[in-house]
Amino acid sequence: MRTVGVEEELMLVNARTGEPFAVSSAVLASAALRGGEAGEVFEKELHQEQLEFSTQPLTDMGEMRKEIVRWRGEALRYARESDAVVAALATSPVPVEPSRHRGERYRWMAEQFALTTKEQLTCGCHVHVAVDSDEEGVAVLDRIRPWLYLLNALSANSPFWQGEDSGYSSYRSRVWNRWPSAGPYELFGTPDVYHQQVEAMVETGVLRDSGMIYFDARLSANYPTVEIRVADVCLEPDTTVLIATLARGLVETAARAWRDGEPPAPVSAGLLRLASWRAARSGLRGPLLHPVTLEETSVETAYEALLDHVEEALADTGDLDAARKGIAAHLAHGGGADRQRALRDEGLDLHEVVKACARITTAAE
C-alpha cells in the first residue's frame, strides 16, 4: 500500500480580532524550545502570518486524521503563547498587509515578482503519495492531470479576499496561479523530458531554482513521491483526509494504467486551465467540467466519474466506502467556502467569521 503524507499551511490570527498576525517566528521558537518532534514538524512559509506542518508518511487514513488533529492542536498551543490562534483558511477574509519573512530567498522572490509575492498570503494543502521511481512518477503525473481540479473544487476554502466576497470558492488557486510556473502542465512522457523541462525553466532566470516549479503536481525534490499541490487548506480535518484518500487513489489508478500500457489522455494544458478556473469559481455549487469529456456537467456527475475512475484502487486499500460517504456529505452540505459564507450570512462580520473558523480548525477530536 502506498504511503501518503500531508503538508498543511495554517494562518496565524490574532485571538481577539481575527486579523492575520505576524508571529510565526515566535511560534516556531516556542516549538523549538520544547524539543522533540514539534521542532521538526513545523516550518515557516513566505509570510509571517503562516505556519506549516507535515505529517509522517502513513498508510492508514484513520491514523492520518489523528496526525492532522494532533498537529493542528499543537500549533494552537504554541500560537497561544503569542496571543494568536490558528485558522485553516486558504485566504484571509479580512484585509491584510502580509509581512514577508526575512532571508535571501524571500528577498529575491519579492524583487523578482513584486506584487505577486506580496499577495501570496495563501494556504494550501499538499499531498505526497509514494512512487517507486521517477519513471513511475512521471507516468502518474501524465495520467492524473484531468482529475486534479476536482480535488481543488472539493477542498475549496477561500471565498473571501481583502474584505470582500471574491465570487470564487477557491480564490487562493487564482492568486497562486499568478506565479509563472504554477498550474496545469503538458504531458511529459519520460523522466528525461520532465527533468529537461524543469532545467530549462530554471535556466531562463525567471525562477530562482527547481523549488519554484509550482505545477499542479510534480515529482518531489526531497522524497520519492508525487506531490499533488492543487488543494486549498481544508477547514476540517475530515476534508483533508478525503483529499489524501482520493489523491492516493488517483496515483495508484494511474500507475496501474501505465503498467497495463494505457496511454494518458491527450488533453492540453490550455483546456485544463479552463477546467481549473471553472472548479475554482464554482466549487461544490457547480457546474464543473467533466473530467473525461471536458464538457460542462453537474457536480454530482463529475464526482461520480471520479469515484468510478478510482473505485478499484480505493477498494483495495479499504477506503472506497469512506470516500463515497465523504463526497456525498460534501455535495449535500458544502465545503469550507460554503461554511464561511454561511457564517457570514448568519450575521457575523468577517473578523468573527475568522474566529469561528479558528474554533472549527481545532475542534475535532
Which H/E pattern describes the elements? EHHEEHEHHEHHEEHHEEHHEEHHHH
Shape: globular
| Count of DSSP strands | 11
Sheet of most strands: 7 strands, antiparallel
Instruction: Tell me the CATH architecture.
Output: 2-Layer Sandwich
What's the tally of helices? 15
In terms of structural class, how would the helical and strand content be classed?
alpha+beta
Stretches where pLDDT falls below 50 for ≥5 residues?
Answer: none
Q: Helical residue percent?
A: 40-55%
Mean pLDDT: 96
**Ends: how far apart?**
26 Å
CATH fold title: Creatine Kinase, Chain A, domain 2
- The CATH first-level class comes to Alpha Beta
Strand content: 5-15%
When the domains are counted, the total is: 1
* Radius of gyration, taken over Cα atoms and rounded to an integer in Å: 19 Å
Keywords: ATP-binding, Ligase, Nucleotide-binding
Catalytic activity: L-cysteine + L-glutamate + ATP = gamma-L-glutamyl-L-cysteine + ADP + phosphate + H(+)
GO biological process, one term: modified amino acid biosynthetic process
Protein name: Putative glutamate--cysteine ligase 2
Structure description:
It is a single chain. The chain is of the alpha+beta class and 365 residues long. It has a single domain (4-350), classed as Creatine Kinase, Chain A, domain 2 (2-Layer Sandwich), CATH 3.30.590.20. It is 49% helix and 13% strand. The protein is built from 15 helices and eleven strands. Strands 1, 2, 3, 4, 5, 8 and 9 form a seven-stranded antiparallel sheet that branches. The chain has a two-stranded antiparallel sheet with strand order 6-7. A hairpin with a 6-residue loop joins β2 and β3. α6 packs across α10 (237-259) and α7 (148-155) runs parallel beside α11 (269-282). The mean pLDDT is 96. Belongs to the glutamate--cysteine ligase type 2 family. YbdK subfamily. InterPro entries: GCL_type2/YbdK_subfam, GCS2, Gln_synth/guanido_kin_cat_dom, YbdK. GO terms for molecular function: ATP binding; glutamate-cysteine ligase activity. ATP-dependent carboxylate-amine ligase which exhibits weak glutamate--cysteine ligase activity. This is Putative glutamate--cysteine ligase 2.
